[in-house]
Structures are given as structure tokens and as C-alpha cells.
Amino acid sequence: MKTPEPNFSRREFLRRNSLTGLGAVLTPSLLANAAEKSAFTVLDDPRPAAPAFSVADAPALMGGRPVRTKEWPIWPQWIPETDEKRLLEVMRSGVWSRAAVVSEFEQQWAATLGSKRCLAVVNGTNALITSLAQFDIRGGDEVLIPPYTFIATVSAVLATGAMPVFVDIDPNTFQIDPAKIEAKITPRTKAIIPVHILGLPADMTRILPIARKHKLVVIEDACQAHLAEINHRKVGTLGDAGCFSFQNSKNLAIGEAGAVVSDNSEFMDRCFSYQNFGNAYGSAGSVSVSLGTPYQGTKLRLTEYQAAIGLAQLKRLDAQTTTRNENAAYLKSKIKDIPGIVPYRLYDDVTRAAFHLFAFRYKKDAFKGLPREVFIKALSAEGVPCQKGYATLNNMPYLNDAFQSKNFRKIYPKEMLDFKSYVERNRCPENERICNEEAVWLTQNLLLGSRQDMDEIAGAIEKVRANAEKLLTLK
Predict the structure, then answer these.
(1) Which ranges of 336-415 does DSSP label H, i.e. alpha helix?
(2) Which residues, including other chains, have CB under 8 Å from residue 258's CB and lie 6 or more apart?
(3) What is the rounded CA–CA span in Å between residue 66 and residue 321?
(4) CATH code of residue 136
(5) Rounded to an integer, what distance in angstroms lies between the CA atom of residue 41 and that of residue 27?
(6) N-term to C-term CA, the chain
(7) Which residues pair with 343 in a beta bridge?
(8) Is residue 100 included in any domain, yes or no?
(9) To the nearest whole percent, how much of the chain has pLDDT over 70?
(10) CA triplet 143, 146, 149: central angle to 5 degrees?
């Protein structure tokens, strides 16, 4: 799944954050917190401490000096000295289509996750489509999904001809709410796709027993959740299959790529066949093309040079994930007591998150009614780029477009395709509030900074709150 574009371009992001000069805005409470010893082992910032000034100073959005003017860590990262040797070897070899390097990446990714098998494909969306197709999810079936996800999750379901059914979220965790799953199960329901959105694990401890009870296939959408864990097991390895994305914004960035993982060898053989035109593979039959193609398939093969980039990125992923977790916990401790700011919550059995995004809920009443749009603009002007995140997916026209297609009209009864009725059946009030009013995101590269960087984020939020009344004049 791709992460939506921020509210400004990358060029604008770099322009805003490459200025030189002034330091953090910290309230006395933040200064006191900064002096406390922390339980998290994040490297201290080697820069000298920035001078503090009052959060009552003019907001940057109204001409005041911003809290932060330094550039944030760039993403993706590329280190020529360590990363280019293997890539150049692949490029010079002339072997660019799928071969030994792709297989090596698959083996390393499977081993990293603790899964028996991995299949690399062109992107996370097609990893989902491949998994659904090889679990025989087809037209006439229903698949349960959360509404708080990237559109690729829904697109994959529609691509198989199946009907997406939305289950509302727990607003504290941003994840599908297990308590609301069983009410959405019908005789047509064949699968559930828990999405570990933002890199925060869904409540698999409650979801899996429900799926087993109703004999549902569980395909984990872990596209944003590289190395996240529940009870020390990597997400993506808990259900029947797990799907990952390596798109450019992801914590393991290749540009465009994805993967399916599973311990089910027969299923993985079918996935391999599917991504290679349907040619037989392994337990699915002989690999000889001369024997003919026995299965429906498509072409989703990864290239050797993409795999070489992935192998380079994989070497840093564990350390980067640790840094993101430590900085996320530290930042959460700094902002959790700011009125109107409600950070994410992890389920009790989460032993590690991925933090593809750092999310919090914004309560405008504690900011004198300042609209979220103005809050986001003001915080971005202070040097902390942020965004509101997803729009509601369960009422968009793309669904009706699919429903009016010839295939859907042949497969489903007319009443199931009535868009107005569908939207009403799939209303998700908690998701609507998160999407339309409350969610604020910080991208994962910000969490690769220092503790002082986290202090500056907290200071910027405090400053916006202190200036909320002035900022109201910009509505």
C-alpha cells in the first residue's frame, strides 16, 4: 500500500526544512521533561542545545520564526559505499529478469520474518491480489476489511470480483475492531484482511479465533508493518499469508515491489505459478513450459536490480526499526499530556511496532476550536511536516464504478449493488471521525532523527496550541 502524498510537494518539503538558523521552542514543562533521564536508548543529538523561547511567540504561519528550520532525515536512504557494489554487479551482468538475486532476497526476507517461504512480486497490491486469488476468493465472495487503510487493500478485493465489506475501527489504535467483526459475517464471507495500518499491529490475538470459528482465510496486509511483532512473532506470519510492500515510502524501500509470505508450501507454489503466467511450479506441476500452461496467471515477476536494492536496504532495517520505536515512545511521552493530543495506543501483546507513520488524534476543542486543517498548516509552518491522512474509503465513487461493471452485475443480485444501500450498510462512524476530523500523521523519516528532534516536534505542537486563538483568525 502506498502512503498518500503529503499536503505539499517533496520540493516544498525540502525548501521548508533546509533553512539555517533558529532552534526549538520549548515551554518550561517541556524543558523540564527534556532534562529527565529516559528509559529509551536513543543517541543524543551532537548539536549544542538550542536556545529556548516562549511558545507565546508569533506562530510561523503568521510570520513568526519557526520552531525548526533544519532538514529532516531524507528517505529513502542510499549509501554508495555499502549499497552500490551489488547493484552494479547485477547491472553489469546483463541478468536483469528474475534469477538468483531475487531468490536470495526472498530467502532473506522469509528468514527475517521467521516464515518458511517468500515470493517477491511487483508491488504490495499484487501481493494481495495473488494471495486472494490463490485462496480461491472470487466473484460472489465477501472479504472483511477495515476502512482505515490505503485504497490498495480494497482494490485487491475488487480485482478478484469479490465484495469488500467494511468493519469499523478502534479509534484508539486505528485498527479494525475485533468486537465488530462477527456482525459483518454472512454466508458469502470467505476471508478477512486485517491491516496493520501505520505499522501498528492489529489485534490478531482476538481476530484469529474469530476467523477459525467461521472458517475464514486470514490474509495479513502488513504492507506498512515491516518487522512489527505480536508476542515476538512478526506480523505477516500469524495468518494464512502475509503481504508486504516495498514502495518508495515504505520502511524497506525498493521503489516498487512487494512480497507474499506463508508457511503453506502448496499455496506458495500456486502463488509462484500465478505470478509467472500460470506455468506449473513445484507441487503445482512440472516447470517445463513445453508441457503447456495449466493455470490462469499473470506476470508479476520482480527484477534482479530491484532485489539488489532490497538486499542493501534490508541490512539497515532492524536498526532503523529500533530507532523508530524508541523515538516514537519518547515522542509519545512528550505529547500525551498536551490537552487535545491523543497519541496512538498499542495492544498489550505488541512487542514491537514498525511506525511507518506516527499518528495522533487531534481534538480541536482543546485548541479553542481551531480546525484540523489550520492546525496542520501551522504545525508544518513550524518545521514539522504533517498531514491528515486517509479519506473515507467506504463511500467513494470507485466502489460504484466497480458495482456497475458487467461482471459485478452478472455475479451479484441488484440489491447488493445499490450504492446508496451499500454505503449505509458499510457505515463506519469511528472511521469517519478519524478521517474527517481527528487524525494527524508524521512520516517515518522524522522518527529517524534525534531526541532533540522529538523535543522540537513536541515544542511545535505546544506552540500551535498556545497560539490557537490567533490562528483562528486564519480560518
Answers:
(1) 372-381, 397-403, 406-411
(2) 120, 121, 122, 123, 124, 125, 126, 127, 223, 243, 244, 245, 246, 247
(3) 29
(4) 3.40.640.10
(5) 24
(6) 33
(7) 360
(8) yes
(9) 87
(10) 115
Q: Which amino acid is at 193?
A: I
Q: If you average pLDDT over every residue of the chain, what do you get?
A: 90
Instruction: With beta carbons less than 8 A apart as the criterion, state whether 71 and 17 touch.
Output: yes
Place of cell 534525534: 450
By the 8 A CB rule, do 449 and 327 touch? Answer: yes
Q: Which CATH number fits the domain that encloses residue 41?
A: 3.90.1150.10
pLDDT score of 11:
37
Which one of 311, 344, 365 terminates a domain?
Answer: 311
Q: Mean pLDDT, to the nearest integer, of 454-475?
A: 95
pLDDT at 422 over 60: yes
Do residue 216 and residue 239 come from a single domain?
yes
Task: List Cα–Cα distances, 70 to 20, 22, 25, 250, 446, in angstroms.
Answer: 6, 9, 14, 23, 12
Q: Give residue 361's domain range.
A: 10-76+316-390+435-474
Same domain, 259 and 334: no
Which strands, in side-by-side order, build the sheet including 350-352?
A: 233-234, 229-230, 350-352
The x, y and z cell numbers of residue 242, run together, are: 502475509
To the nearest 10°, the Cα dihedral for 48, 49, 53, 54? 160
What are 406-414's contacts with CB under 8 Å, separation 24+? 407/139, 407/161, 408/139, 408/161, 411/139, 411/140, 411/161, 412/139, 412/140, 412/163
In the numeric block, the cell 491480489 is attached to 129
For residue 284, the Cα-to-chain-centroid distance in whole angstroms is 33
